[in-house]
């Protein structure tokens, strides 16, 4: 099956693309996009992989679903297109970065600059129907992204996995914590953050400390 995805990822995941579940998933996605408004745009479904090639990944941030409002989703978890208001979860992420690292916050909520530095911004489910959160869950995307995480865990060394919220933490079972740093905390959504489960986690400074310790350049958050 020919999937338009960055070349190194295409090689790493070649076996996955030939499995029956993935073929059924692609047929489902094609049907959904042909009959409904879906996000992100079709050419951005694999944007997280295109922006962060397999051999350049240093950090993995795991989201759940793409944003389901018009113009928001750009294929990177928590990220929005330039000119789009920052959603509440992203605002809370930026607030924690400011508190943790005293870094000047970017004007845009577009996280492509992170992706270019090796941050894989991966949603567990890569597509969604407009205004219907979770509408493409349990169709095969979760199995695919499990395979992505397993492949990174097995074939790469000293990565940082940031698992925010219960949904992301479940993916932690695919990660070898002896080889990689796994940091968990509550989800940055207002519901979780306002209950004290997000702020003060210091994941951004901890990530950079680990990367430097392992001979890698830190992320400019």
TrEMBL record:
Its EC number(s): 3.2.2.27
Gene name, Swiss-Prot/TrEMBL: ung
Pfam families xrefs: UDG (PF03167)
Highest classification ranks of the organism: Bacteria, Pseudomonadati, Bacteroidota, Flavobacteriia, Flavobacteriales
Residues annotated as the enzyme's active site: 65
Name recorded for this polypeptide: Uracil-DNA glycosylase
Keyword match Repressor: no
Keywords from the named record: Cytoplasm, DNA damage, DNA repair, Hydrolase
Molecular function terms, GO-annotated: uracil DNA N-glycosylase activity
GO CC field: cytoplasm
GO biological process, one term: base-excision repair, AP site formation via deaminated base removal
Family of the protein in this entry: Belongs to the uracil-DNA glycosylase (UDG) superfamily. UNG family.
Compartments it resides in: Cytoplasm
């Amino acid at each position: 099956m020919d999937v338009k995805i960055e070349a190194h990822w295409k090689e790493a995941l070649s076996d996955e693309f030939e499995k029956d579940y993935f073929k059924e998933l692609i047929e489902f996605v094609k049907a959904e996009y042909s009959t409904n408004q879906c996000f992100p745009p079709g050419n951005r479904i694999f944007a997280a992989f295109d922006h962060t090639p397999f051999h350049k990944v240093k950090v993995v941030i795991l989201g759940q679903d793409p944003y389901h409002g018009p113009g928001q989703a750009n294929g990177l978890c928590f990220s929005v297109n330039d000119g789009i208001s920052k959603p509440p979860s992203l605002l809370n992420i930026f607030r924690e970065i400011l508190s943790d690292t005293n870094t000047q916050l970017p004007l845009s909520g577009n996280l492509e600059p992170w992706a270019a530095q090796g941050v894989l911004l991966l949603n567990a489910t890569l597509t969604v129907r407009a205004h219907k959160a979770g509408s493409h869950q349990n169709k095969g995307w979760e199995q695919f992204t499990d395979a992505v995480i397993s492949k990174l865990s097995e074939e790469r060394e000293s990565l940082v996995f940031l698992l925010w919220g219960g949904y992301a933490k479940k993916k932690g079972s695919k990660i070898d914590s002896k080889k990689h740093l796994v940091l968990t905390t509550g989800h940055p959504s207002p519901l979780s953050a306002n209950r004290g489960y997000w702020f003060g986690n210091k994941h951004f400074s901890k990530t950079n400390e680990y990367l430097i310790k392992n001979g890698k350049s830190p992320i400019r958050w």
